[in-house]
Design brief:
Length: 447
């Protein structure tokens, strides 16, 4: 079997290595238009912050790792055309301009997405930059002395992480967000305002509910650097010519398959899934490294077990995400109250500020947990801000959502305790109990 993967980022690289782990004999080729082997995009803001020593440290696999695994990695090589009838890909070496052809039995599209640039009048005259790649960091590092002020359009987690990194580099930073609050999609307003205060206390200006329509509105000076961080969009490189469904990304089923012998993974996809009970179709995107990696593992498994549906794996996500600014860690999983309201789902929520260790321990830290559930008590989401032990609690809630657990389940878990490590009353259990009681009161009022 010959598998060709277009795109050697997180999804493409993990798919190649997973395929090799599962099968020693098949031929695996990656076509990657960039010059870099796989590196950690998620570490880019921390290189700017200075908590990663040097940019090259974020490279996760080097060329000899691919050779060792017998994966033919063609760097600087762009796939330009796919002919699914002949099962061939035409590619071009970017440096030499030379074209070549390669055949495949199974094709994996893992070509990622591009930064989304909002339609702002004359934006191209502003010498703006985006912040998504190794080369972007290299550019910023080289030009760090050329500006004093960074204006970041977009208050998602990448804009926030980058803003923090630039403050650490002694820049004056302003974040401009079109939505009523930063981190839209991840956090509700009440939790966002806590993060926003931390940013403002550090000296960052945060302007929300502000839409820039014309670049003149920003009154940029020669000492300003404009950085656009307004999300991503997927370009339809091959889907149309291959007859694949394309919406916000290439549409795949939850087995990562778009068509027989074509699998698509990572940022370039949208997953369409039917609820077995209600038969309602839901479509999700998950532009996260965690999802790209799991999708790659699932695709590799399913490619090799394509003739055995019983062995096929399926993907689902709560879009569990976490970030850090300075000493503060914040993350979320599942639905926000705002997202649930948009879907017409009635929710109750509870928020709790607690300690991560017993109150008498000097090194205890604050943690703020917001838990969201539907009116039957099923856990829908959580948002957590703290200084330690945020990830583990988020993952626990993610599991509760995935396995359709109720608040009562979160209350009855056998949590560990030691005063210097974890409090006797686990904050997650306490907030679940508060939320449960709230639901009881709200439901009683309705009767
Ligand atoms: C600054 C930043 C911070 C992030 N932080 C986090 C985080 O903390 N946690 C988290 O879970 N996620 C995070 N993410 C998101 C995560 O990095 C992405 O979801 C993940 O990298 C997507 O992987 P991918 O393989 O789909 O795409 P990519 O990694 O973008 O790889 C796609 C590759 O395809 C190549 N390509 C495109 N077209 C062609 C073609 N025609 N021929 C050949 N090659 C082609 C591209 O050059 C690229 O290398 C972050 C992203 C960024 C930018």
């Amino acid at each position: 079997m010959k598998v060709v993967i277009i795109g050697g980022g997180a999804a493409g690289t993990v798919a190649a290595f997973e395929l090799r782990k599962l099968n020693k004999d098949i031929s695996i080729t990656i076509l990657e238009k960039g010059k870099h082997t796989e590196y950690s995009h998620c570490s880019l803001p921390y290189v700017i912050e200075g908590t990663v020593e040097k940019l090259s440290d974020i490279v996760l696999f080097h060329e000899d790792d691919y050779v060792k695994e017998d994966v033919d990695l063609k760097l600087d090589t762009e796939a330009v055309e796919v002919d699914d009838k002949l099962k061939t890909i035409t590619y071009k070496n970017i440096g030499s301009g030379k074209k070549g052809k390669i055949s495949y039995d199974v094709l994996v599209l893992a070509h990622g997405a591009h930064p989304f640039i909002p339609p702002i009048k004359d934006i191209e005259k502003s010498q703006y930059m985006t912040f998504t790649t190794y080369d972007d960091v290299e550019y910023l590092q080289k030009n760090i002395r050329s500006f004093d002020n960074a204006i970041i359009i977009g208050g998602g987690f990448i804009g926030v992480e980058l803003g923090w990194g630039l403050i650490e580099q002694k820049k004056k930073v302003t974040i401009i967000e079109r939505q009523p609050h930063i981190l839209p999609g991840m956090f509700d307003q009440d939790m966002c305002s806590i993060v926003q205060k931390i940013l403002e206390d550090k000296g960052m200006k945060v302007k929300t509910d502000v839409s820039i329509d014309d670049i003149q509105d920003l009154k940029l000076t020669s000492r300003d650097k404009l950085i656009v961080s307004t999300g991503i969009h997927v370009k339809d490189h091959f889907a149309k010519s291959l007859g694949l469904k394309f919406n916000r990304g290439i549409v795949v089923n939850d087995k990562m398959q778009s068509k027989k012998d074509i699998y698509c993974i990572g940022d370039c996809i949208e997953i369409s899934k039917q609820d077995p009970k209600t038969k309602k179709s839901e479509s999700i995107t998950s532009w996260l490294g965690t999802s790209a990696v799991r999708q790659a593992q699932i695709a590799a498994n399913n490619i090799l077990n394509s003739s055995n549906p019983k062995k096929q794996l399926r993907f689902w996500t709560n879009n569990t995400a976490i970030s850090r600014i300075g000493e503060t860690v914040f993350g979320a999983t599942g639905m926000t109250t705002e997202a649930a309201a948009r879907k017409g789902i009635k929710t109750a929520s509870a928020r709790l500020k607690a300690y991560t260790r017993s109150e008498h321990c000097l090194d205890k830290k604050d943690i703020i947990i917001k838990l969201i559930a539907d009116m039957k008590g099923y856990v829908l989401g959580a948002q957590i801000i703290g200084h330690e032990e945020v990830a583990g609690r988020l993952d626990l809630v993610s599991m509760a959502i995935q396995y359709k657990m109720k608040l009562s389940d979160l209350c009855s878990i056998d949590y560990c305790y030691n005063p210097s490590v974890a409090p006797i009353f686990e904050p997650l259990s306490v907030v679940a109990d508060i939320c449960q009681r709230k639901i009881g009161v709200l439901n009683a009022r309705k009767k």
